[in-house]
Design brief:
Blueprint: H1 2-15, E1 36-44, E2 47-57, E3 63-69, E4 72-82, E5 85-93, E6 99-109, E7 112-119, E8 122-130, E9 139-147, E10 150-160, E11 166-172, E12 175-185, E13 188-195, E14 202-210, E15 214-221, E16 224-232, E17 239-247, E18 250-258, E19 264-266, E20 269-270, E21 272-277, E22 280-289, E23 292-303, E24 306-313, E25 316-324
Antiparallel strand pairs: 1-2, 1-8, 2-3, 3-4, 4-5, 5-6, 6-7, 7-8, 9-10, 9-16, 10-11, 11-12, 12-13, 13-14, 14-15, 15-16, 17-18, 17-25, 18-19, 19-20, 21-22, 22-23, 23-24, 24-25
Length: 334
């Protein structure tokens, strides 16, 4: 019975439209201190639930924060960050329209965010760690090599492990080359390439510059030089999207983050099978509770910088519409 009640409660959070303030535009992010995204864990109905806390500054320099959970985005109130001590208030609207308020008091300790969330219902321990970042250069690049009046298409796929170490593959019509060394220093990318084909042995180096959604550089070998120009596959979708989800119960705020390697988070939930075919976008969200599976299926389009579509579940659907957060390219590896 408890699992069934929990399952219904989570489904309710996903479908019912709550009145939540708009997601503030983040500014002043940094790897030091508190600012940025934190993955936090708390107890709910005897189970551990993961959410995201994100902290920033607004255009006036005021400290801001959002709590991003399975059900959507909530702006935090009275965010105070001083000498490693953190305090904020979170307000939510319950199923019957009542306002529920809780206050977090905690600190940053050994790279972790620890503290207690207190409300009239009691206290819950909260512990968080900074969310890992996928290096901006990761992903699939459609490259074109040019020598005089000839062009050669190449696919460059760059992956990053949990520690941010890079590995790459280089594929062309002539086969796959080994990338024995790949380094990213700020926005400068260098690679060492080698072909083991006995009929066409070849070694070369690549030196290039990472741009907003492009990669430009030069291939050098004993055969001379070739200019290389590339575009990122999926660039139109990659980034942070502020979304409105509308059903017959109203509208609420959501967040979609698509990383350079096409992995993604919808609010705080990992997304499965993100695809971008032309301007058509599809992805799935799957969650298990005991022996029950809960799935959400999104189908939509990107047009004129906006994402629109429909999120469908076994209990109904929501219309989704939103825009991508555009940040200035600073020429450095996040």
């Amino acid at each position: 019975m408890r699992d069934q009640r929990l399952f219904k409660a989570v489904v309710f959070l996903a479908i019912v439209a709550l009145s939540v303030p708009a997601l503030a535009q983040p500014a002043g992010r940094g790897r030091g201190g508190l600012f940025g995204d934190w993955i936090v864990k708390s107890e709910f109905g005897g189970r551990t639930m993961e959410s995201i806390l994100t902290f920033a500054r607004d255009q006036d320099g005021n400290q801001t924060g959002q709590w991003i959970g399975f059900g959507g985005v909530t702006d935090l109130k009275n965010v105070q960050i001083e000498d490693g001590q953190v305090r904020f208030t979170r307000e939510m609207r319950g199923r019957e329209g009542q306002t529920m308020s809780s206050t977090f008091t905690g600190r940053i300790e050994d790279g972790r965010l620890v503290g207690t969330m207190s409300s009239e219902r009691g206290e819950n321990a909260i512990e968080g760690r900074r969310a890992p970042r996928t290096p901006r250069v990761a992903g699939t690049w459609e490259m074109t090599l040019k020598r005089e009046d000839r062009e050669f298409p190449v696919t460059l796929e760059i992956k990053a492990d949990n520690e941010g170490q890079l590995a790459a593959t280089w594929k062309s019509e002539r086969g796959e080359m080994k990338v024995s060394r790949i380094e990213l220093e700020r926005n400068a990318l260098t690679m060492a390439l080698k072909s083991d084909d006995p009929d066409r042995p070849w070694e070369a180096t690549f030196e290039g510059q990472l741009q907003q959604d492009g990669l430009a550089g030069t291939i050098r070998s004993e055969r001379g030089e070739m200019a290389a120009q590339g575009t990122r596959r999926g660039a139109a979708l990659i980034g942070t999207w502020n979304l409105d989800a509308t059903s017959d119960r109203g509208t609420r705020k959501q967040r979609l983050v698509v990383y350079p390697d096409m992995t993604a988070l919808y609010n705080a939930t990992p997304v499965k099978n993100v695809t971008l075919d032309g301007d058509n976008v599809r992805f799935k969200i799957a969650i298990s509770f005991g022996d029950r599976d809960f799935e959400m299926d999104f189908a939509g389009k990107i047009q004129d910088g906006k994402l629109t579509g429909e999120m469908t579940t076994g209990m109904g659907s929501q219309k989704i519409a939103g825009t991508k957060v555009v940040r200035a390219f600073r020429g450095r590896n996040p």
